Amino acid sequence: MCASLPGKRDLPASQYNLDTYWGRVRQSAEIADPRTLFVSNAGLEHAKSLVSAYKQGHVQSMTPELWRAKKIVDSTLHPDTGQPVFLPFRMSCFVISNLIVTAGMLTPGLKTTGTLLWQITNQSLNVAINSANANKSTPLPTSTMVKSYFLAVSASCTVALGLNALVPRLKRFSPSTKTILTRLVPFAAVASAGALNVFLMRGEEIRKGIDVFPSLTPSQKAELEEKGKDVESLGKSKKAATIAVAETALSRVLNATPIMVIPPLILVRLQRTEWLKRRPRLVLPVNLGLILTTSIFALPLALGAFPQRQAIKAGRLEREIAEQVGAEGMVEFNRGI
Question: What is the DSSP string of 149-190?
Fold first, then answer.
């Protein structure tokens, strides 16, 4: 990301208003844009030089070209190391990387072995993405990552197999309702494992707290930039960490909802049509098309649910934080991903 490039001057967080839901949706669409995957090494170096020129004060204002350069840098480089993230694990490759795995989990009539293999594959991909984008300044211990992986795999497989065994025994529901519930089993498995994974991976934050900063006006931020100073932390807050982790866990559920709910429900309806009954070989490509379309258009809607930089009243946090800015004063913290 841009933070890893030389220069003390910060770029604007976004060209959209991140205080509004639709502003965050538009920003999420920028981050997840797969077109940045096709930028050459020369294009990346050019984008880095433009961003560095702004951070060092050689360029005074943001231009369309500079916004595009920021987009390329943010979607390609790791914020701590400044090195490109391995391509399949970038956020801009999320739709493509998850397409086959999601299609596998949503395959109609999947047996026990297939269910287990696809759930394990999904959690393995999640671990790879989390590891590639993790904070390198405070690396997560390998033991914690391994423990989190196996618990998430256990949770997703248990939920998937348990619900697959339970749904056929529901006598009060019609066969069509049971079919719909069966198609939604992968969503329940992925959502529960995803939420659990967040709490396991970030449990240390809840125990020790995360840094909280005063919410500054644009003029105050500009004054600090002129002096070459950074915003100082007000201290660590366990309550802020609990909010951040809980919102992130909920966002994982929201992220999975459109991709794993909309396509199977549409596919159930399509499989009842004479057109698809006569063409059973088209079920897989139709399923892939539904997942791809939903991912492209619905993913930004889910990603924009919560702001990355959360601002709340200090009175909701620990007393020592509130005493520094007043109970009605606003403070900020990074929610994380």
Answer: HHHHHHHHHHHHHHHHHHGGG-TTS-HHHHHHHHHTHHHHHH
Torsion of Cα atoms, 100 then 146 then 132 then 32, to 10°: 40
Q: Sheet containing 235-237: which strands, arranged edge to edge?
A: 235-237, 210-214, 330-334, 309-313
Name the residue with higher pLDDT: 230 or 251.
251
**Both ends of the chain: CA-CA distance in Å?**
15
Segment 189-198 mean pLDDT: 84
Banded model confidence at residue 42, pLDDT cuts 50, 70, 90:
very high
d(CA 216, CA 307): 17
Q: Phi and psi for 109 in degrees, rounded to 5?
A: 70, 25
314: helix, strand or coil = helix
Q: What is the pLDDT of residues 120-154, one digit of tens each?
A: 998 888 888 877 876 565 566 778 788 888 888 89
CA trace torsion 332, 198, 99, 308 (10° rounding): 0
CA distance 254 to 305: 8
Cα 61 from chain centre: 30
Residue 213, CB-side half-sphere exposure with 13 Å CA sphere: 13
Q: How far apart are CA 289 and CA 269, in angstroms?
A: 15
DSSP β-bridge partners for residue 90: none
In Å, the largest CA–CA distance within the chain is 71
